[in-house]
Amino acid sequence: MWTTKTFLTKTKRGNILKVVREHYLRDDLLCGSNACNVCPHKDDEYVLDSIPESICALFDFPHYLLLDTNVVLHQIDVLEEDALKNVIILQTVLEEVKHQNTAIFQRLLEIIHDKKRKFYSFVNEHHKDTYVERSPGEKQNDRNDRAIRKAVTWYTSHLSINNVSGQFPQIILLTDDENNRKIAQEEGIICCSVKDYVENVNGFVGLVDKLSKNVIPESCSKDALYPAHLTPTQIHTGIRNGKLYQGTFHASRDNFLEGTVSVNGFEKPILLQGHIGINRAVDGDTVAIEVFPKEEWRRPSDIVLEDKADDPGDLLEEESVLLSSAKPADNSKDEITPTGKVVGIIRRKWRQYCGILLPSKFPGATRHLFTPAEKRIPRVRIETRQSDILSSQRILVALDSWPRNSRYPLGHFVRALGQIGDKDAENEVILLEHDVPHARFSEAVLACLPPNDWTIPEEEIKKRVDLRSVCICSVDPPGCTDIDDALHARPIEGVTTDGLKKYEVGVHIADVTYFVRPNTALDKEAASRSTTVYLVDRRIDMVPDLLSSNLCSLRGGEERLAFSCVWEIDENANVLFTKFHKSVIKSAAAMTYEEAQNAIDDESRKDVIVQSLRTLNMLAKKLKQKRLDNGALLLASPEIRFQVDSETHDPVEVQAKKIMDTNSMVEEFMLLANVSVAEKLAEEFPQCALLRRHPAPPPANFTTFLKATTQQGFEIDVSTNKSFSKSLDEAVLPDRPFFNTLLRIMATRCMQQAVYFSSGTLSHPEYYHYGLACPIYTHFTSPIRRYADVIVHRLLAACIGEDVTHASLLDTKQADAICDNLNYRHRQAQYAGRASVALNTHILFKNRVEIESAVVLSVKRNALQVLIPKYGLEGPLYLPSEKFTYNEEEHYQICGDVTLKTFDELTVRLSLDSTNLQHRKLVFELVKPHVPGFSYEPEQMEVETITPDQEVKETPIKKRKETKDSKAKKKSKKQ
């Protein structure tokens, strides 16, 4: 049977187009029930039980549940529990959910595919007895509700006539739409709200906690604390006529009453202050804002402000402290920022948040406050009857709504992650909070892998350049198992026209694309993950371990497939010729940086590996100098390495990473390979090459940095990267060898993020990589751990005829989407790595206190940001306003004869503050210079560590001697 579907669509030019499509209807679609004896099911198509057991006290008869769209969208956490079974999901609902929220759609599909859950997907839109036409003037939502009710009526009739035993299951429509329930009841349909059904389910403790709180309409809020949000129509009209602006809200980490929104037309982000100004926006939301007149603009507050109230109830505290501090002083007009307020929410970007429960002070209470681990997220009000258990655990909570009459948003408990302080639970928090995909690889992904005993087929070797006889080796950090790259260098007979020696140098990169083919489950998973994430004690792989640590890893002594970039280079490091080809290699050695450095420095060694390394090292130094001469920046970051206990995996020591010549040697040839490949791709694919750019930082980024360097007597020229690099090289203090490194660390903070992009989206001058001072750049050298490199390998293979050009590679729209995801995942992986370092630092300092040298990175109104060079650790050293005076113009603090400014050397005491379980933090206390009544005085205290398992104790010296004497007496008594 055929019918037609008609709908209207708008063209790019604004014309209305009528589209008519034929719609095929059938009468042989299966109902999925074991109670039916008519539908010709196969064994695996009998999904629903013939006489399902009722678990709800409201209904004492066998029944199936049929859900409407909003139940799926808002109550997916309830549906994921094993409690609800024998559920019918209509095609109407599936399509609506897919259109509105792809993440929930994927979660629903996983439930449907789990045979134990007994969820059946019924194709009601193609059944002749359940399909409904949309009436003239009828809203799509009302039509869909009508289609759902018709499917319920059909199922009830179908099962009552065609059942096996005479007893048949009833159909219960679950919907939270009061109007839909009213109409359904008038039509004789049994229906129920999700809340009523779940609250009467027996035998599933905690299921009620997972109920999403219904959204309260703006107009229905009583005792409103916040202004009402504008309607979508009002927002659209306001943006179109220029009265409103759209942007993404970014909450402040240091001040819960402040945030910003970047919008077109303003050089600076728009400042939002106070509860009313933020108006229930949550970090990441797309909002509509109104910008105030210029006379109402303010500057950002420099006071650190946290929401410390236990639960102030539905009240908004006075904001006079924040607003008075934000008023511009006469001498700071350049710091005044456009200011505005949120007037509407365009799109929420809420997710599930990790944190801890703050139990109510009232015994037996079910309403509690949840404190997220992410400081930029407000506290959340949830209901749970498990507070006694959950108060000691890290938990996951989802946001549901934020009514006008509630100080905090409303949410619901999702699941517990583990005990607070448990390392596995804390790592899970890091991964979830930074949106790092870390589930086990699915069966579909694993099915794409070759067998464990896979070896290179002979026919594949014949297609490639055989380099197994060439002395190739890899140089990596200690413990590295995902070895992406290997190198070789050997002399070439003859000389250049200038009489210079010639060398063949090769960079050989793991050929991951041989195993990861386009559009497979493995490829889609790698694209989603985009990068391998490195935590201190674990690695979250982009591709399964069989590839990352075995078949793709260029391990010593094993034959591997590679993609090679080979140059002919003269002894002055001038590239004479470049070629690319797929190859087969057999690495002669997999070395660490230290092993390679020792081999180079050992004059007694003359073997082929060492000769290759020395050639590479010699050429690398010349390549580096050429880059620096072109204006490349040598920046620095405080990187550290943890020594981890082999059994507990807890850190036992931390130290700054050692940088050797071999680090630079590998880096130079990786950079050269990336540049060579980028040039080739841009030549062959000018519209869709995947490249990487580094925008030049805006001059405003350097303001504080330049003030600080001027105080030290250096005039740094930041007009170009070349002048900047030269200035950094010259800024040296002979009596402070670490000063130049510190300068480069601070310069790094002024930079913008490097990003991936598709070549067709920008003009050639915008390809420029500021930090490397090169006109074009990409990532080719790490395909095991970066999906960008996988795409680049595919493009390069197509360039040289080693593989076919896939249509998806040439799709600029898809390339843009890939770049967006790459940039997001890369950024989140960096943040997750830093959070892991912070977690392990806290574990390390749990039982220790140390006094160390430090340097000042920046000066704030109420704190110094300090760095401990020995450990690469940094944090705030808070200064009381009653003792210190802050100079806003020059950014320094004064207390009597003591002046503290950027780059100053200090001595600090370092310890861990665990009083706040949610946010443990390192505490920095000033030791030197000495400020009476403020500085910690070590001469009065000594640190005594009893055992590694006991807490660090600080004992006055006199008392400690008595303790030793008493121990000696006890010992003599025993003897």
From TrEMBL:
Localization in the cell: Cytoplasm; Nucleus, Nucleolus
Primary residence: cytoplasm
Region (Disordered): 939-975
PROSITE patterns per record: RIBONUCLEASE_II
CDD domains assigned to the protein according to its UniProt record, in alphabetical order: PIN_Rrp44-like (cd09862)
InterPro entries in alphabetical order: Dis3_CSD2 (IPR041505), NA-bd_OB-fold (IPR012340), PIN-like_dom_sf (IPR029060), PIN_dom (IPR002716), RNase_II/R (IPR001900), RNase_II/R_CS (IPR022966), RNR_Ribonuclease (IPR050180), Rrp44_CSD1 (IPR033771)
One GO term of the biological process aspect: CUT catabolic process
Gene Ontology MF annotations: 3'-5'-RNA exonuclease activity; endonuclease activity; RNA binding
Basic and acidic residues biased stretches: 950-966
UniProt cofactor(s): Mg(2+)
Lineage: Eukaryota, Metazoa, Ecdysozoa, Arthropoda, Hexapoda
Domain RNB: 464-802
Record-linked PANTHER family: EXOSOME COMPLEX EXONUCLEASE RRP44, RIBONUCLEASE
PIN domain sequence ranges: 63-182
SUPFAM superfamilies with a match to the protein in the record: Nucleic acid-binding proteins (SSF50249), PIN domain-like (SSF88723)
Similarity annotation: Belongs to the RNR ribonuclease family.
Name of the molecule in the record: Protein DIS3 homolog
Pfam families for this protein: OB_Dis3, PIN_4, RNB, Rrp44_CSD1
One GO CC term on file: cytoplasmic exosome (RNase complex)
